[in-house]
Amino acid sequence: MSAETGLIKARGARIELAQVRKRFADSVAVDDVSLVVEPGEFMTLLGPSGSGKTTTLNIIAGFTPATSGTLTIGGTQVQHLPPHRRDIGMVFQHYALFPHMTVAQNVAFPLKQRKVPRARRAEMVEAALETVRLGGYGHRRPRELSGGQQQRVALARAVVYEPSVLLMDEPLGALDRKLRESLQLEIKRVHREVGSTFVFVTHDQEEALVLSDRIAVFDHGGIQQVGTASELYERPRSLFVAEFLGESSTVRGRVEPDGDGSRLSVGEHTVRARGRLARGSAAAVVVRPEHLRVQPAAQSVDPGVNALPARVVQEIYLGSGRKLGLVLRDGTELVAREQADRLSGVRRGDEVTVVWDVERGVLLDDSSGSTHPPTYGDRSPVAAEKSER
């Protein structure tokens, strides 16, 4: 590590999980998970509570033994090695700093455990604190720091000994939103400077989109899809991924072939989509809120687009624009986003037409039903409308 620049000369290790399974007494927490994290990559494990993401992280760390499967770090199988022999750093949600030690002593602790000479320890601690922009804070105690500063100390302690892999278990979960957003950028910068392989666990979709090179979406102990933020957002392969990652509007129906694509009957109307599924199968067309356009019902619709009649039941001001809660005639709830400079002018209670381009919809199998319906702030449009009648 260079004390002058604060840059850590570490190179990330490749992580490979192959058919990893973890069974507890009466349940399977991780079910046949296979995943490759490339050297120096920032991989986020994303999913709801109980999806298996944290158990997977603990298996990589060595805190939880896998029931079966293999784990390779840097070309060496490590599933039988204790945590201190895996060349990993760890950052927890609740800092885990020693209150009786100074910041410098906290950061130096793993170096002392590794018997790094005192003079060298001082250089490495100074460089690590510079990396997290806490130079000059070494003499303070944790109680003299803000929550964000304490988390930076925890990050410095995790990277000071130049691990090839850094694991982070919801490290920003205890911080307020503004501080979280600030530290997201700091973590991204530190990852660039350090060069280690980062594996980050969160249930916060926005956090995952901001930080990650790639995201592994977990549900029921397994990985549903792995990809970049744009791949998962624009081309989800399942309804779960589409509705869990970001907001979405979903229209359901039965499939009928339509040339190179498909069409779904929605009441008296037809929705077209790219892609093919078996005739008569249950399907859904998912559209992101920013791709929906809302116009007064009396306004003519351009040919070649999908259009459905709806009613506006909720308006949410967002500063940069607004979000509209909409209900179709069959009770289906949709959400649309409008930019401040492109507002449609429609208001709550208006009869409108919801319009989107065919290529903006993603056709997905709906045979298992949805588990994560779209959300509209504090309440769904239907709930909001009923409570305000």
Structure description:
By secondary structure, the protein is of the alpha+beta class. It is built from 9 helices and 20 strands. The strands form 4 sheets. A 6-stranded mixed beta sheet has the order 6-7-8-3-9-10, with helices on both faces. The radius of gyration is 25 Å and the shape is elongated.
Could you give a short description of this structure?
By secondary structure, the chain is α+β, with helices and mostly antiparallel strands. The chain is 24% helix and 33% strand.
Q: What letter string, H or E per element, gives the SSE order? A: EEEHEEEHHHEHEHEEHHEEEEEEEEEEH
Distance between the amino and carboxyl termini = 65 Å
Radius of gyration: 25 Å
- Percent strand equals 25-35%
Strand order of the largest sheet: 6-7-8-3-9-10
How would a crystallographer describe the biggest sheet? 6 strands, mixed
Count of discrete alpha- or pi-helical segments spanning 4 or more residues: 9
Structural class: alpha+beta
Q: Overall mean pLDDT score?
A: 88
Helicity, in percent?
A: 10-25%
Shape field: elongated
Stretches where pLDDT falls below 50 for ≥5 residues? 1-10, 370-379, 384-389
Number of DSSP strand runs: 20
Question: What's the topology here?
Answer:
Blueprint: E1 15-23, E2 28-37, E3 42-46, H1 53-61, E4 68-73, E5 76-77, E6 88-91, H2 103-113, H3 118-131, H4 147-159, E7 165-169, H5 177-194, E8 197-202, H6 205-211, E9 214-219, E10 222-227, H7 229-234, H8 239-244, E11 249-258, E12 261-266, E13 269-274, E14 282-287, E15 293-296, E16 305-317, E17 321-328, E18 333-339, E19 351-357, E20 362-365, H9 381-388
Parallel strand pairs: 3-8, 3-9, 6-7, 7-8
Antiparallel strand pairs: 1-2, 1-4, 4-5, 9-10, 11-12, 11-14, 12-13, 14-20, 15-19, 16-17, 16-19, 17-18
